[in-house]
Amino acid sequence: MGSPQGGTVSESSWVHPTHDDPTVAALSESVGGPMGQRAGRHPWWSPVRVLLVLTALTFAAGMLAKAPCAADEWQDNTLRYTHMCYSDLPFLYGLRGMADLHWPYTDDAEVRAEFEVMEYPAGISYWAWGTGVVTWALSGAPDVDDPARDMPREGTLYVAVNAVGFALVALLTTWFMAGVTRRRPWDAAGFALAPALAVTGIMNWDLLAVVFVAGAAWAWAKDRPVLTGVLIGVGTAVKLYPLFLLGAVLVICLRGRRWTALAGAFLGAAVAWLLANAPALLTGPEQWKVFWSFNSDRGADLGSVWLMVQQMMGPGTWIDVGLINDGSWAFFLLWCVGVLVLGLKAPQSPRFAQLGFLILAGFLLVNKVYSPQYVLWLLPLAVLAHPRWRDLLIWQAGEIFYFAAVWWWLGGLLDPAQGEYSVIYWAAIALRIAAQLWLVAMVVRGVLDPDEDPVGGRDPAVESALVDARPATQK
């Protein structure tokens, strides 16, 4: 049976989750127990194909969850919170000029006077503009200056167009993940069946970066450092956070003294990032800078510990934007140093996903905004770093609780009888952080004690490099 990594993998070598994961084994008792040694294999339903179907079903469930808002064309300000079906997409379709087919990086004075510049990186802006063109065409190519245009209907269609694209992205993400550890394709089920994928997949454009993270993990497992860097670079042009995966590459290469791989990954990332940003830089350099200035100037926002502290301290707090910026980056720098020391001192080289997850988790813990859909940033790395359903579900339970709390808080459903802020919302932020730290602890335990790592063994790329370095008589 072919594998996503190329070559062949014997079916008998696959690690079945009912044999490997205690939670899955216990749940399997309701349908006959763990898979037996003499169980037959279907000639067509390979693990990867099953995983793709599961991903499609999960994503369909997420689209169904948006149905109440879609039925009302996102016009009911209360419904979007009570039914937790909010999405940024239908609003930004009109507010950022996609409905009028304006290139995100145009410096046309009339356009800039009417529409704000996209506050997202170039990769998302390209996608948002392209899907806007598709939506306009599917709407019958209406006159963009027609005041009678049915903008709510077009905005709803825009969400549908994006959702179709996101579904394909989610399927590709699953395919990549199934090929990271060739004997463990079923690990990708943690992504395919993730509640977080269902509830946040269509909120914003974050899934576009997720596929590059999964692709980078896949490329690294194939011992292709340049391709890994290219995928990280393009992913960084979509969202900033894939850049931090270079830290995982750095640790692994330092341990193995793989200087060529290190240089190839970093150079590939730099060139890919520059090429991906070139259209924006060449057509609107000032508009391209907006993403950077917007994120530097924004204050504490939803989901962050900074917002919780500000609200607890009340009006006039001394926690300003400058302090938040400095404090966040200082904490993240110290966290990265800690991951570096952990990676270098570990009994064996940690896996790419383990290091990537730990680095990104530290970034999110103190980021000044932690939107509900940011859970997608961690999802593929978390599943690959620690494929244990119990711990993944503990982590996602915290995320789902926060997901519900933030919408109900914004909708005024959690307003206290007295006072301005909701203790329940603060508790949701704290619970989310605690659940994330639980998973961090599980991953750190696996790094420090390889026997506690569900995957076990060295990083696939390191293993391949060690084999290649042996004398011919030892291979």
UniProtKB/TrEMBL annotation:
Residues 1-40 are annotated as: Disordered. The chain crosses the membrane at residues 157-178, 190-220, 226-254, 261-282, 328-346, 352-371, 392-411, 423-444. Residues 1-15 have a biased composition (Polar residues). GO terms for molecular function: hexosyltransferase activity. The keyword Membrane applies. The keyword GTP-binding does not apply. It is found in: Cell membrane. GO terms for cellular component: plasma membrane. It is a multi-pass membrane protein. Keywords: Cell membrane, Membrane, Transferase, Transmembrane, Transmembrane helix. Pfam families: GT87. Belongs to the glycosyltransferase 87 family. This is DUF2029 domain-containing protein. It comes from Nocardioides jishulii.
